[in-house]
């Protein structure tokens, strides 16, 4: 359903250090920088972009918004979370772990990036 996701940043170099650590911890590659100065991450046919806002205003995070990223295992979610905290992210919500939902058990880990964007690593229990 989604072709790409994008978040704003006020410091692209800081964001590159953070997201490179985050995505390489779960099997992705570091970003390439496109002609417009945006960070572009491509993994498993998905695209994630980090950009300065086009309108020239300061980047802000979406209150109530969360970007969920699929993980291959709980261990991968833990590695993602640890890499994010080590690279300047902030652990939020409950600690990484299993949650029961109406759609089965989920392993979740939450972070805010250095610009305040809310991210979630999610692994769905396979039955």
Walkthrough of the structure:
This protein has 127 residues and is of the alpha+beta class. The chain has a single domain, classed as 2,3-Dihydroxybiphenyl 1,2-Dioxygenase, domain 1, CATH 3.10.180. The chain is 20% helix and 35% strand. It has two helices and nine strands, in the order βαββββαββββ. The strands form two sheets. Strands 5, 6, 7, 8 and 9 form a five-stranded mixed sheet that branches. The chain has a four-stranded mixed sheet with strand order 1-4-3-2, covered by helices on one side. Helix 1 runs antiparallel to helix 2.
SSE layout and pairing:
Elements: E1 5-8, H1 12-24, E2 32-33, E3 39-43, E4 46-51, E5 67-70, H2 74-86, E6 90-91, E7 97-101, E8 104-112, E9 118-124
Parallel strand pairs: 1-4, 5-9
Antiparallel strand pairs: 2-3, 3-4, 6-8, 7-8, 8-9
Question: What features would you highlight for this structure?
Answer:
single chain; 127 residues; alpha+beta; 2,3-Dihydroxybiphenyl 1,2-Dioxygenase, domain 1; five-stranded mixed β-sheet; 2 helices; 20% helix; globular
């Amino acid at each position: 359903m989604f072709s790409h996701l994008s978040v704003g940043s006020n410091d692209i170099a800081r964001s590159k250090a953070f997201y490179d650590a985050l995505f390489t911890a779960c099997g992705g590659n570091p970003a390439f920088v496109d002609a417009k100065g945006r960070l572009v991450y491509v993994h498993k046919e998905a695209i994630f972009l980090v950009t300065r806002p086009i309108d020239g205003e300061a980047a802000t995070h979406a209150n109530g918004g969360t970007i969920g990223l699929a993980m291959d295992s709980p261990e991968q979610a833990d590695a993602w979370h640890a890499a994010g905290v080590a690279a300047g992210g902030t652990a939020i919500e409950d600690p990484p772990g299993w949650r029961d939902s109406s759609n089965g058990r989920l392993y979740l880990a939450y972070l805010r990036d250095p610009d305040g964007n809310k991210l979630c690593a999610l692994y769905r229990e396979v039955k």
